[in-house]
Batch of 2 targets.
Target 1
Amino acid sequence: MRHTVQMDPEYRLSRIRHDGGRLIDLAAADPVAKVPACPGWSAARLLSHSGRVWNSVALHVERLTPEPISGSEVPRADEGLEVEYARTAHAKVVAALDSADPAESVWTWAGDGTVGFYLRRMHQETLIHRIDAEQAAGEPSEVAAVDAADGVDELMCLLLPASVSNAPAGSLHLHQTDGPGEWMMNGVDGNVVASIGHEKGDAAIRATAADLLLAGWQRRSLEGLEIFGDRAIAEEWMTLSA
């Protein structure tokens, strides 16, 4: 189930441009900086990863392929050239998404088989890795509540149901404190079943949308957040994306 609020494609593109640019600039300034949320990753490795994702998405959107494109077709970064690689890939994915109709059909790995899936995915992927670059550089910046709530919704209602087969048996209610977002997560035979709205769960977390997003992607701990009920269930749910 997807959130009922749909974002303007131009807004998403503006965020991909901004966040991708900030990610690249920060990582380029200190390529050997460690990325706290990704053990073993340097900022250069973050650039290589982000560039490869951008290149892959650009190819899928450009071709509107009904089948996945082989990884062998996706350019890789040469050692020492990660900055240039990421800048080129970033420009390529922005151009591809800007030229495509979000309603066009294309292969995706999750439930929404349209270009709109990739537009949303790149918005959120680039945001999370912007945060990684900021954490590596020690230069955090604000995560807008509207972007964060959309990211929580994408993670909980689209990505986890498409990728998880070992969901916790207990239920979790997420409550956004700086907006109207509420999500209910249930595990049914190992599958993630998500819904939007207020229900009582075995555990509940109340926090800003940004904190819910960062916790859901393991970019922050649950410390300092309001947690009710079974904390172990809350922790189990919030580490599913790992």
Target 2
Amino acid sequence: MVSLADTHGRHFEYLRLSLTDVCNFRCTYCLPDGYKSSGPDSFLSQSEISHLLVAFSELGITKVRLTGGEPTVRPDILSVVNTIAKLKDIEKVALTTNGYRLDALAGPLREAGLTHINVSVDSLDEDNFQKITGRPLLNKILTGIDKALTVGFEAVKINTVFLKDLNDFELPGFVEFVRRRNVSVRFIELMATGHSQNYFRKHFLSTRIIESYLHDRGWNEIAKRTTDGPAIEFAHPDYLGRIGMITPTAQDFCRSCNRLRVSSRGGLQLCLFGEGQYDLRPYLDSSHQKEDLKQKVAEALFLKPRAHNLESGAIGATHTLSMIGG
């Protein structure tokens, strides 16, 4: 098996594949005015996804995360998961969701071959949740999380965007949430995009205060594996779950980058905050194009930058995170 590598010595085993840029939530940091189409809704078909993943698996990808928008708005989500899970070299199939269908889909997703699931929960208070997401669905989503914990996923995680004056005061509640639940809550630093720079200046808060909070209460950092995402996670002997942080503005954050991104229309994006994409869709019509597709990916990887430039205010071409799934 070929190993995907860039010119900076990093190897890539993890692909984030967006299935759609449609989302039915109105999160204040992403889509405060609701979803608006960024182009024709010609998202990758199951056939195209299959051709894409066969090539990437032969290039060394072993973990695939399905993102959006909201990936479960696709009516064929179970078939897509099953198609990917059947590929012999793919060891992990993960999904990031807002959880609005999780109570009904947790079991079928697991049966289809999904191994890991992440659910976005930005508040544990019903009113505050609606304020941030625009949807009064917290209790339904929490029910779905509890259901997911019973059906045998290898990992259930919660993603929480850490927001100054909006949910930072809920930190103790999130820590208590994992005392008796085998879930990992990961606090994600707010990231500026083309449409959210004023919001970013108002609500950005470093997750370093969370790390200090945990250290002071006896939590210890856990070693990472090669296919893990960017989160730094902490464990405590008195808690069943874990707490983590994702800090894209931290020094050397990009040094351990192990993931590539493909958009819902087949664009290879080398960095979440990069300036453009490499169109792979012309190579997805037939399995006979596989070698050309692999060559295109390998050539593009030589252009992957050493790091983003978020610290200097460069945010690339990503207007909203729903465009590429974060």
